[in-house]
Amino acid sequence: MVRTLYWEDGAAMILDQTKLPDELTYVKCIDTDMVAECIINMRIRGAPAIGIATAMGIALGAQPIRAEGYGDFVKDLESAYKTLLATRPTAVNIEWAVDRMKFFLENHKSEPVETLKKMLIEEAGKVLEEDIEINKAIGRYGVAFIKDGARILTHCNAGGLATGGYGTATAPMRTAHAEGKKIHVYADETRPLLQGARLTSWELKEDGIPVTLITDNCAGALMNRGEIDLVIVGTDRTARNGDVANKIGTYMVAVLAKENGIPFYVAAPTSSIDFSMPSGDMIPIEERAPEEVTMVYGKVSIAPEGISVRNLAFDVTPAKYVTAIITEKGVFRPEDLKNLDEEGADLEKFRL
Ligand code: MRU
Fold first, then answer.
1. What φ, ψ does residue 74 adopt, rounded to 5°?
2. What is the three-state SS of the chain?
3. In whole numbers, what is the pLDDT of the chain averaged over residues?
4. Cα 158 to ligand 1 centre (Å)
5. What's the pLDDT at 298?
6. Ligand 1 atom closest to Cα of residue 167
7. Domain co-membership, 226 together with 171
8. What is the 324 CA–ligand 1 centroid distance (Å)?
9. What's the gap in Å between 246 CA and the centre of ligand 1?
10. End residue of a domain, out of 101, 135, 169
11. How do residues 309-325 score in pLDDT, each as one tens digit?
């Protein structure tokens, strides 16, 4: 499958997802600002993918620093953290990646600055490789919920393109497909930026996984007609009480799933769980430009000029609608997350 991002000759190569599915082009990012621009303008998007890009953006930010001592070096690196933290607010993975890189430096403070610069590049590469392994583990746990012949609904893109590869919501689907189960995926188109139409349906089709594209408005009708067996989505940030922030429209899907007696699963790396956040109402929700709603591709106007618009990019699905959260460490009931400490150290104990 196509690579979302990778290192090449000291530059972060980022697949420009705004051009998909028509064009496959990479942006060559040589500094923090270029990575931040890619995140803000959603050339790269999806919580785990923007976490990995953040790690790379920090490594790039370290390269031109001239300071010789550790103290000055980390001080100079702070502007890179700030730039990346200011890009998009909802996905906790950006904060997670900043913390991880800070922690890494803290643990290697005795190394010379020039060595640290190289080590940061390697560490960001590790974040990428680990993400793919994490997704495969999500696939191994999640496949248990997919029967032969299952019809699965997903929303937005929590696929390979939203991660280092393999995807979170798509991981159980890919695993089931690889095991020879006959599955069929229904992809919500996901207004306004059409991640379902442009990205999910494209990547699944490319990989030979049967997929049908539907409008967001069609999901409830299909559920009501008995044509959906389960829902699997991703998350940008899940709070300690199991409330799940994900792409706008996820809440509607979850309520409809409950109404129709359909299980609703959230697939997420544990880096997308914010153990410090007690509940979903505290999750910062990004609001984006009105033009994303009033225009198609920034070119064709579909609304009266000057119309008032609300363009919330994410919503919060209360834990009561979530059947289970599928992570790389096992499957959990949303209500069990509250039993975990800040680090999620007791995670093993609460597995389903
Ligand atoms: O605005 P986007 O495209 O970054 O939103 C992405 C989503 O909502 C995904 O479902 C979420 O980040 C999980 S990706 C594994």
1. -70, -30
2. CCCCEEEECCEEEEECHHHCCCCCCEEEECCHHHHHHHHHCCCCCCHHHHHHHHHHHHHHHHCCCCCCCHHHHHHHHHHHHHHHHCCCCCCCHHHHHHHHHHHHHHHCCCCCHHHHHHHHHHHHHHHHHHHHHHHHHHHHHHHHHCCCCCEEEECCCCCHHHCCCCCCCHHHHHHHHHCCCCCEEEEECCCCCCHHHHHHHHHHHHCCCCEEEECHHHHHHHHHCCCCCEEEECCCEEECCCCEEEECCHHHHHHHHHHCCCCEEEECCHHHEECCCCCHHHCCCCECCCHHHHEECCCEECCCCCCCCCCECEEEECHHHCCEEEECCEEECHHHHHHCCCCCCCHHHHCC
3. 96
4. 6
5. 81
6. 15
7. yes
8. 18
9. 6
10. 135
11. 999 999 999 999 999 99
- CA 234–ligand 1 middle distance (angstroms): 7
Segments of the chain scoring below 50 in pLDDT: none
- Catalytic residues, by residue number, are 236
Same domain for 329 and 206:
yes
pLDDT of residue 1: 81
Full domain range(s) for residue 165: 145-350
Residues 72 and 188 in one domain: no
pTM for the structure as a whole: 0.96
* 216 within domain boundaries: yes
User: What pLDDT score was predicted for residue 299?
Assistant: 87
Atom of ligand 1 nearest to the CA of 169: 15
Number of domains in the chain: 2
**Nearest ligand 1 atom, CA 159:** 15
List ligand 1's pocket residues with C-beta within 6 A.
Answer: 45-48, 91, 156, 158, 162-163, 168, 195, 234-236, 246-247, 313
* Structural domain contains residue 163: yes
Q: Is residue 140 part of a domain?
A: no
pLDDT for 341 = 61
